[in-house]
Every structure is written in C-alpha cells, then in structure tokens.
Amino acid sequence: MAGKPKLHYFNGRGRMECIRWLLAAAGVEFEEKFIEQPEDLDKLRNDGSLMFQQVPMVEIDGMKLVQTRAILNYIATKYNLYGKDMKERALIDMYSEGVEDLGEMIMHLPLCPPDQKDAKIAQIKERTTNRYFPAFEKVLKNHGQDYLVGNKLSKADIHLVELVYYVEEMDPSLLANFPLLKGLKARVSSLPAVKKFLQPGSQRKPPMDEKNLEEAKRIFRIK
Amino acid sequence: MAGKPKLHYFNGRGRMECIRWLLAAAGVEFEEKFIEQPEDLDKLRNDGSLMFQQVPMVEIDGMKLVQTRAILNYIATKYNLYGKDMKERALIDMYSEGVEDLGEMIMHLPLCPPDQKDAKIAQIKERTTNRYFPAFEKVLKNHGQDYLVGNKLSKADIHLVELLYYVEELDPSLLANFPLLKQIQLYPPRQGRRVARSWAPVTAQTTLGTIFFGREQPADR
C-alpha cells in the first residue's frame, strides 16, 4: 500500500482546497507537491501524469486521479463519508453539487474584471441569502439532526461548512438568519481533525491575494 | 414503488439530455413533463419541488432529485453502470468529468455571442483533437477492452458515446484519427442504434431563452 496521498497543485486554494478539507476532516495526512513555475506543470503534462493535462491531481492508492469530483468521491467512499446506501448518496450528491455551484461563483471572484466585480458580489450575496442557505437550513430544520444526511458526518457537511467559512470571509452578516447552519459550522469545526486543520500552521490555504493571483496566472498561463 | 422516473425540463437537450441517454441505455422507460412557459417553472419553484430552484429535476423512487450529477450517479448505481468497486468508480468519475468538461463547452455554444462564436468553435475542435479524444483513445488502446472501465458497460461509455455524436454533429472529421472511439460508438450495434437520438440542436433564442432567461442574464440559470 502506498504512503500518504500526494496532492499536486499550486500553493493556493483553487480547486484543490475542498480536497484538502475532506482529507483533513477524515483525519488523513497528506503531502503536497506545489507547482511553482509553468515548467513544473509542463513536466507533469509531459510525464503523462495528467489525464486531461490539468490539475488538481492526487496520487492515491496507486492511481493518479484528476478531476475534482472523482477525487472527492473516492476519498469520501474510502473514509465512509458518503452515506450508507444509494439514496443517502443521492442526497449527499445533491447537496454537495449545490454547495459547489455557489462555491464556484466565489472561487472565480478574483478573476472577475474590476468593472463587473460589484455586480458579481451582489449576485453571490443574493444567491447565498435567497437560494442556497435557505435550502440547507430547511434540510437541517426538517429532520432536526446534527448532520445533513443520515444523522452522520458526510462529505456534504464538510463541503457546506467550508463554504460557510468563505461566505463569512466575504460578509459575516450573511449568516445572520441561519442558526442551524451556524450550529453545523460550530459542530463540524469542533471535531478534533477539523479543529486541527483550522489552526494556524495547517495545510489550509489563506484567501487569494494579489500575489497569489499573479502566481496562479503565471503558472497556468492565464492572461 | 413508484412508477417510471419523471423528468422535468424544457423540450430540448440542455442539461437533461445526458440523463435521458443514461436511462435509455439502461433500458428504463421514463416520462417527461415539459416546461413550456415561465409559469410552469414558477409553479415547480413555488411547490418546493426544486431544492435550488433549478431544473433538471427527476422524480424517482420517491425522491425529487435535482443537480445533474446527483441524478446521474443515482441512476448509474441503481442500474449497475457504475463499476464493481470504488477504484472502478474513481476511473468512471474521472472519465465522465472529462466528457462533461468538453460537453459543457459544446452545450454553451448556442449561447455564445456571434462575434465570439468562431473562436469558441476553434477552441472546442482543438480541445477535442488534442486533449479529450487522445485521452480516451489511449485508455481503450492500453487495455484493449471493449469498454472504458472493467470490461463492462458503464456510465462513462454512455456519456462518451453521447459526446461523440455531438462532436460528429459539429464536424465529423474530428473523429478521423480515433479508430477505437469510432468502434465504441458502434459496439454493440443494437445498443448503439437504440440510444441514438436525432434531436435537433437547441436554439437558445427560442424556448430556452423565453423560459429561463426572461429577465436574467444568459449565463445565469
């Protein structure tokens, strides 16, 4: 059996951060090989390590997996964070995809042209308050349980709590009317593995700043 | 046990078509309730039938599932099109997501502003020929089996074959240098003919525009 999973990405959140969260929450130690120059990415491509020439790529259990969802689903299955049967998995997928839709909007914000940024932020806040947060608050309210699906921690809870942190970074007031989401955030954050990940010095990555954005553009050759 | 799955969407491909393909390939009969007016969509939203106010939505086994991947994964699991273990599932997911990335580009083409269309088509052709088709051809070449994963039909094969038909619609010559892909499209012949559909491509200006985009921006659905 191979060693720890090895994550190939640049040193920033991007599309790898949700994978870091999931591994961390599962209590799995992992290594990171940071892409720092465009040439590092070229090398991975020329080695044939990237099926579609893209990262994230995670080396795990003898595989070189690409595509964020493929990686997340594998980790979730391996560490029992994917529900107990196919109906629970369907709910977990449905919730995770909703989180991903909003998360994608937030992730792309640094790349948004300056003249469109305010409108984009307004749209994100509107969606958060009127579409996504109410949907998840309703799930928790309806069953009154501690976790979204099957009364047990799953990838859906981890993805949602990660998202709540990002929304809070943007505007803490957005959580105001969602007590059950706040409760879920507190509950998941206090799990030992997650608590450790939230502390300084962990492999959790900070928000993207100008320098980090320039680095990503340089590595991925984005104009 | 409820009856046939019931698909809620407008009468066009969009994000529902891959679900239709998968059900059809699995031999599952399904019903469709077409959204024809903005009011139909409003009704579904007000009923609380759409978790995130969006379609596709599929009523299946007592659930009202939204989010294309959640629906696809459930159907694939239920009808044994998702591999035999988690490693096979990982490969199926990886391949399916690659198909989806290219499929998304093709799906958005009708919504592309006219002055950007040629560049977009060129990008699609380039990605098809240099990134996606070679990747799948290589998988088939390496193991020499009839299907992408585990020598057995899976959702990955169905999604890929559906994509091949769309690429062919765009430009048949793109398949020229990929003999193994051409073979998977046709093999086995009976299944290939059953799942082939000759729907007209979506025209965004008509139904889709009226129903979804009313007062919203095209990219916001």
From TrEMBL, chain B:
Occurrences of domain GST N-terminal (ranges): 3-83
Biological processes per GO annotation: glutathione metabolic process; xenobiotic metabolic process
Catalytic activity line of the entry: RX + glutathione = an S-substituted glutathione + a halide anion + H(+)
InterPro entries according to UniProt: Glutathione-S-Trfase_C-like, Glutathione-S-Trfase_C_sf, Glutathione_S-Trfase, Glutathione_S-Trfase_N, GST_alpha, GST_C, GST_superfamily, Thioredoxin-like_sf
Top-level EC class: transferase
A cellular component term, taken from the record's GO annotations: extracellular exosome
Source domain of life: Eukaryota
EC number: 2.5.1.18
Matches recorded under Gene3D superfamilies: 1.20.1050.10, Glutaredoxin
Domain GST C-terminal, first and last residues per copy: 85-205
SUPFAM superfamilies: GST C-terminal domain-like, Thioredoxin-like
Recorded GO MF terms: glutathione transferase activity
Keywords in alphabetical order: Transferase
Family: Belongs to the GST superfamily. Alpha family.
PANTHER family the UniProt entry points to: GLUTATHIONE S-TRANSFERASE (PTHR11571), GLUTATHIONE S-TRANSFERASE A1 (PTHR11571:SF107)
UniProt name for this protein: Glutathione S-transferase
